[in-house]
Structure formats: structure tokens, C-alpha cells
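Suppose a colleague, Dr. K., hands you the sequence of a protein chain of 314 amino acids and asks what its three-dimensional shape might be. Before reaching for any lab equipment, you can write down a predicted structure in C-alpha cell form. Begin with the sequence itself:
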Amino acid sequence: MRSLVLRFALALTLVGLVSACAGDAVTPTPALYGWRSAGLILPDANSTGGLRSLVNIGNLLFAMDSYEPSNASLSRPRNWRIWKGCVGSGSWQQLLMPDGEVPREWAVVGQKLVVGTQYSGRVFEYDPFSAKWTILRKESLPGPPDSLPEVEGVADFQGRAVVAIGMNVTGRNQCFIQVIQTDSLMRIPCMNAGKTLPFYSAFQLGDYLYGYQSEWGVHRYRLGDSSWESLPSPRGRTDPTEFEFLSAMSVVNGKLYVGYEWNLGVFRWDDGKWTNMTPKDANQRMETSHTVSVIAGYRGRLFQAGSEGSGIAM
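The predicted structure, expressed as C-alpha cells, is then:
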């Protein structure tokens, strides 16, 4: 489950050393160990799935919740929202998307927030300095209610937005990269042999963009290539019909890490092979979360967090 309040708390730790936003009157906070509130209290917290993601641009914080109103239609059950705040201020406001669009996935690209939508497959870019939205992908793909397009993943690759759009109709998935120094996108292949598999999350490492899809593993793409390269299974899966069960990916200190569901652990990509980074207790039981949702680095240490099992491990 990717909608975790724990992801929000861990992200705050990583940006907590940033000073407050310019112009805000903020009382200096003594350097104390432990957690403190960031001040974001959802107005309908009892009926939502909590916060699912948080990113920052300098001192600005952007949080996405997983609100599902009780009166929502079956074809549009999610009404996720974006909240904008500032390190140290404790004040938040809702950031509305153009045309009533519902956010789904996002990434920070070149000091701007690129947001993919939930029900139209459209892509927008938010400039926090001008407080304006720009549309990067206008087309809204047609389809029946059970196959509405949604942005599955957004990534930063060489300072350009890369977007994966998924449909519930085989072969309709599409991937794009931002045309350099423009507000438009152009088609690139998606993952897998059929070039139709959208990524859930992706990170740049060297000349490659590494992406994963929960069921079908890790792939990488180099700009100009006609297809993505499939990497070996981190956990050693050999049956091509078996699901991989990946749940997280991150680059920490110049290394690529992936995490799994079902207590399958955390692995690191090392020069063409995977290294198992999963700690075990005295009884040889995995000491990672049942589902790893966050992988992050802090002061030379690797952290993972998720649901069930060991909530946070390092």
C-alpha cells in the first residue's frame, strides 16, 4: 500500500534541516531529537486515507493526500488533493489544479512540480515562484469509465519530465519525455518487450533512467534507445509468469535500491548485479517492513520504512 502516513513523516525528517521560507515570521525551533508536528491537519482526516506523498522545492513543501469522499461515483472514487506548506511555518493551504483535475503522481523537475492526473492522463507543471500552472500534455484519452487514463509515474531525467500513462486497455499505455526547453512532451517507448508497460516510479542514475513496475520488475532506459533494457530479478525470480512484488525504488549515495512486499527485503544494484541488503534477526527472519514503501539516506545511513514488520530499519 503506497498511501502511508509514514512516508510523510520520513520525508519531513529529510527536509527538516532546511531553513524557513523567506518572508515568513518563524520562531526558531531548538535543535531537539525526535518527531514534531508539521502542522498539516486534514479537515476530513477521519474519512481519508491520510497522506500518501510529500516533496519539497527548497523550503516549500507539497503534500498529496488520498481523499476518497463517501459520495464519490464508482468511476471516479478518488479525489486526491495537494497541500502547499513551508518548512517551519506550520501553515498549509490547498493547491487546486486547473479544470478541477485530480492529482495522482508527481515529481520535482528543474525546481518545478510536475503533476500527472488521475482520470484524464493530462500533465501539468506548477511554478512555485510565479504560482502558475502550465499544461504539458493537453490530450485527454477517450475510453469507457473502467479504462480512464491515469498517470502511473512521473520522473526527472536529465532535467526533463518523463511521464508514464496507463490504461486498462492492453496496448494503450503511453510514455513521454519533455522536449528540452519547451512546455511539450514527445513519445518514447514504455517498458518491457512490447514497449507498453508504464513505470510506477523511476530515478536517474548515470546515463540511465531506472524504472520499476510492481509485477514485472526493474528496467532502464537511455535517451535515444528504441526500448528499455530489462534487468535481472533482484530477488532471483526465474519464472517469467511469476509476479515480482516490488514496492519501492530510490537512489541513495549514487546507488540504486529497490524494496519488496511480502517481507522479500531490500536490494542494491552493484555494477551489473543485485546485492541483498536485508538485515536478519537471530532467527534469520527479515527485519524489513512487510511492504517497503520508502527507501532513503541520511548522514551516510540507509533507511527503509513501510507497513507491518519492522516499521523503520536502518
